[in-house]
Write a structure and sequence with these properties.
The chain is α/β, with parallel strands linked by helices. 45% of the residues lie in helices and 12% in strands. It has two domains: 2-246 and 428-442, Rossmann fold (3-Layer(aba) Sandwich), CATH 3.40.50; 249-424, Glycogen Phosphorylase B (Rossmann fold), CATH 3.40.50. The chain has helices at residues 10-16, 47-61, 76-84, 97-121, 125-138, 142-152, 162-172, 189-196, 199-211, 223-233, 249-256, 286-297, 313-323, 338-342, 359-366, 380-383, 398-410, 415-422, 427-438, and strands spanning 2-3, 36-39, 67-70, 89-92, 156-160, 180-184, 218-220, 240-242, 273-277, 303-307, 329-333, 347-350, 371-374, 391-393. The strands form three sheets. Strands 1-4-3-2-5-6 form a six-stranded mixed beta sheet, with helices on both faces. A six-stranded parallel beta sheet has the order 11-10-9-12-13-14, with helices on both faces. The longest helix has 25 residues, at 97-121. The chain is globular, with a radius of gyration of 23 Å.
Length: 451
């Protein structure tokens, strides 16, 4: 079920593919047991998806072969991957109704195997129930995933994001056949579960505790996430690898030189612009940002540009009207080039309640844009080195956020110093670390991925 032709739509790709389970024994010489990366979709185009895109395109340039396992072929990032790295082999895991039914049967076989294994080792039954909840909600494509693993026997399979992580580790319950299984946790799970009071997020913690014991290693992008995963799962810290996100700084610089399509960012405008970006959802806590901006606007002229879309947009627009800031806030929705905005805004604000390692914060630094961030669980403080490269404020504190934005507008740090910090997150460093993880045979015996 492979697709590697350039320039076709995702729908056409799916139509042209052979049935799942096609024999791939004719793979190119020297590519046996090539590693794989598994993610549900690249459609969102946010942090984790861009990490995958940067990794795959970088490996392709180096002549390294990596398969991409994916459940759909939607989104511009997926299309860009096909254009930039057509040699990447793509396995679509979602199929027809018969596949869905077989996947559900395979899933229950995996759950039964896990239950028997867990009872033998005295693990908590509640955590098994959490695994069943996650499986029921996500219906992972285990049939196609297991067939791929059995057929290709990749040396390593690295999954990204919660749903793919759980699917991969359920597959591990049915045997690994020598493949190294490595889930990649991208967000602070405990903080998300506590903030959202979400049954699904609580189930995620229980499923991780139950299933991640089968992982050969776990990857996280920030030290705070390493601690969170260790506390949830009981996995020894030395089995949890911290690898920073690969940021293509050259691409950021190139796109930052373009002109944003917004009149407030015209060089002739004198009113400072506060910029924020992200999906309009509870995690990003934009209500606190709007309150902070209203306090700031009462003191001085300024404007707020908000990039992104999401389920809370109508609520935020109503809040802006109530706060009396409608004329000074611009809801831009999705933009293809956020870096042009970052390069011309006077300050970027991250208002999140929790994070992983927020790429947008690094990208703001790379554009020379001063930043203010909440000191939220996750990697924000790590990026800013505890406030050295941008002011940190408590989560949910609108007054402190307004003060920090005002102070930054009045005394901005040198742009070159911000760019120098962003350089610590270069794509070369991260790709090297991921290569050691995905291609263990190529690493020298003494090599270790950064811990």
């Amino acid at each position: 079920m492979l697709y590697r032709q350039e320039g076709r739509s995702a729908a056409a790709a799916i139509q042209l593919e052979s049935e799942p389970g096609t024999d791939l024994a004719s793979s190119q010489a020297g590519e046996a047991h090539r590693p794989a990366i598994y993610v549900n979709s690249l459609a969102a185009g946010r942090g984790a998806e861009r990490v995958i895109y940067n990794l795959l395109t970088s490996f392709a340039k180096e002549g390294k072969s990596v398969d991409l396992l994916i459940e759909d072929g939607e989104g511009e990032l997926f299309a860009a991957l096909q254009r930039q790295a057509p040699q990447v082999r793509i396995q679509f895991l979602r199929g027809g109704n018969w596949q869905e039914r077989l996947s559900w049967l395979t899933c229950w076989l995996a759950l039964a195997a896990e239950l028997l294994s867990g009872l033998a080792s005295g693990q908590r039954l509640a955590d098994f129930k959490a695994c069943a909840i996650m499986a029921e909600k996500e219906r992972p494509p285990l049939f196609a995933l297991r067939r791929y693993l059995k057929r290709e026997q990749p040396v390593t399979i690295l999954s990204f994001l919660n749903d793919a992580n759980i699917a991969l580790m359920l597959a591990a319950c049915l045997g690994k056949n020598g493949t190294r299984f490595i889930p990649n946790v991208r967000n602070h799970i405990s903080a998300g579960a506590n903030a959202l009071k979400s049954k699904r997020m609580r189930a995620m913690s229980g499923a991780m505790r139950r299933l991640f014991r089968r992982a050969d290693r776990v990857v996280v992008p920030a030290e705070d996430l390493r601690q969170d995963v260790a506390e949830i799962t009981g996995i020894a810290p030395e089995r949890i690898e911290r690898i920073l996100n690969p940021i293509d700084l050259a691409a950021v610089e190139k796109q930052a030189a373009e002109s944003p399509e917004h009149p407030w960012l015209d060089p002739k405008e004198n009113t400072p612009v506060v910029l924020a970006a992200g999906k309009l959802k509870p995690q990003k806590d934009f209500p606190t940002l709007l309150k902070a901006f209203a306090e700031l606007r009462a003191r001085r002229d300024c404007r707020l540009v908000l990039l992104g879309s999401g389920p809370l947009e109508n609520d935020l627009r109503k809040q802006a009207k109530t706060l009396g800031i409608t004329d000074d806030i611009s809801f831009q929705g999705h933009v293809d080039n956020p870096f042009a905005y970052l390069a011309r805004a006077q300050v970027f604000v991250l208002s999140s309640a929790w994070e992983g390692l927020p790429n947008v914060l690094i990208e703001a630094l790379a554009c020379g844009c001063p930043v203010v961030s909440t000191d939220c669980p996750g990697g924000a403080s790590e990026i800013l080195e505890a406030g050295r490269h941008g002011r940190l404020v408590p989560v949910g504190d609108a007054a402190a956020m307004a003060e920090a934005i005002q102070a930054t507008l009045e005394a901005s740090p040198p742009a070159e110093a911000l760019r120098a910090r962003a350089a610590d997150f270069s794509i070369e460093r991260a790709v090297e670390a991921y290569a050691k993880l995905l291609f263990p045979a190529e690493a020298a015996p003494s090599d270790e991925v950064s811990r």
